[in-house]
Amino acid sequence: MERKVVYPQKVLPYLLLAPQIAITLVFFFWPAGQAIWMSTLLQDPLGFSVQFVGLENFEAVLKDTAYVATLQRTFLFSFGVTALAMIPALLLAVMVDRVVRGATAYRTVLVVPYAIAPAVAGALWLFLFQPSIGTIAYPLRLLGIDWNPRIDGTDAMIVVVIASAWKQIGYNFLFFLAGLQSIPKSLLEAAAIDGASEVRRFWTIVFPLLSPTTFFLLVINITYAFFDTFGVIHAVTQGGPGKSTEVLIYKAWYDGLIAQDLGRSSAQAVILMIIVIGLTVIQFRYVERRVHY
Amino acid sequence: MPTRRLLLAAAAIAGLATAPALAQQARTPITMWIGVTGPAQEEIMRYAQEFNASQTQFEAKVEFRGQYPEQRAAAFAAFRAGNPPHIMQMFDAGTGDMFALPRATIPVSEVMQRAGVQFDPAAYIGPARGYYSRPDGTMNSLPFNVSTAVMFINNDIFTRAGLDPSKPPRTWPEVIAAANQIRERNAAECGFTTTWLAWTMLEQYSALHDLPLSTEANGRGGLNAVLNFNDAPRARMVQTLVDASRNKAFQYGGRSNDANALFVAGTCGMLIQSSGGHAAIARDLKASFSVAPMPFWPDVIAEPKNSIVGGASLWVFNAPNRSAEELRGVAQFLSFLARPEVYVRFAKATGFLPATNAAFQAMQAEGFFQQNAGRDVPILQLTRGTPTANSSGYRFGRWTEIRDMYHEEVERALQGQQTAQAALDNAVRRGNDALRQFERSVGASN
To answer: Are the beta carbons of A260 and B76 separated by less than 8 Å?
Structure first.
């Protein structure tokens, strides 16, 4: 039985909500509205001439083969980042969960990367993978691997995926660890007494019970890969070599700020917005059904 | 326009009447945004302090707003918001955008004239004057940090490879031969590299070989220019880089200034770089070095033409809220910067070129070029011969982006994903799309 809570005050709840609503309006709805309006315009870099062109910018963007290639690349990139940010985080969390002594120390060390700014993380990995002096590139060359992210698109993609994912591992780790610690020990002990192996206990008890956390992190990480990896890419590859690390958010930024083509840049921003709204809806509608709370 | 002039004149008269009273209370601030770092930035900041100390009416405030492209984006956004800086430093590639949007700025000639400050465009070295002036001789922006591309040579690596650093390679076949020799004798990890690929291998290369980048006199004739740099001589240059990268006779060092690190670390024996990078090389390279002109293909041109200017110039933004007093301050500050002694100091401290003939002669007279071997190479290369339509610079909208298209396509050729010819064909096709889009976007505004 649920008891409905009734506030005697009519105004107070709205007052309490007001700051949040104001922030959402100013920082989300207003810029989103601007983007939608600007995506229908053709204007020169300084805004002297503004022509209404309807959906022409969308048509141009979607017909552009380079844009379609960037779209596919973005999905590949986001999948790579999400997988690489979540799987090691889960592994580390399971391991730290078993540690009895010094758990705080491990936890702190593992969370630190999250505090590092994306651009700094990018610069760090750029050094490690720098073809002639990099600490990781050097052994790779000794192994006979021709490593050069400046020329080789695949190498460059590997660097930006690792740099982007690495930063996010600490965050995922914390959530996984919290999730693990909320799993009742009695369940695991009972299973152990019944003779279930450690691997079996993980897959049949721990992993299903972790699924709310996993689902939450999936949403967060995909959004992160779509939007927050700009700093890493800008610092490490600037979308190159060729276009091999250019993702949607980077292209929208480039076309808007460097090329000063605000109409097409806005059209891309709107498309990006639709993609992310769509992804989130799919996740909540279908993935959530399979999640055990 | 005439009404606005009248209003400005009226405001100027009103301003004159009140100026003495105001001068004691507050100085009129003059903001200038710049996009250079290192020694060049420090120098400009110092000139602003000296200007402020030299008079009591105006206060020049110089602000660094990110590297050139970011600074440009910030200034454009500020202009849209109705509050641009008084002066901005726009790099070479952005010049075409500014010429296509004349209502955004006031030509420097006019700023000086309105303020009654003496200003003579003829004082500037020809290539800089041509690059930043309208056909009628009105100078749109003030050339400040003028540079051009030259080749730097690591003398130690040359000696180790059995080459004579006092006889640097003059032509591309000689450069490739020298680079191969450096590799064969294992004198260095790479033969040569270049910074700013599009600027050196497309823009400077085309000027040197008297080849057009487009129709309409490299865009100076109108916004309807069509790019056509996808011909055999340009494709051969790209193919040469692709071939030379196989044995590391050439190593690609990225789109911007990053290849400079390969040279100062001793990884590469030769570097094609802006003359403005001279001071930094002298500071960082642990070996002696020489400066040589840009190489050329003797079968394309027997006597190479002049190279073109790079660097940046100072533009004066127009805005509805600009007072005549502010414009007077802008004129004062710009003419302070445009004095020969400032140009000489700036050139000496950075490696950029003296922008005026008087400044160059002053440096010659005091024997600067005798004491600093190689420092005259860029200016001699820039001013040699009679410039043609192809070696007088270019003027395209969205050139910043088109440069990157060239970078992307050449990078794909270097990865072996396409031929050199396909790289240039793609760059031209994509570049023309951008030019048409730009032409349409500004079409209704002029």
So the answer is: yes
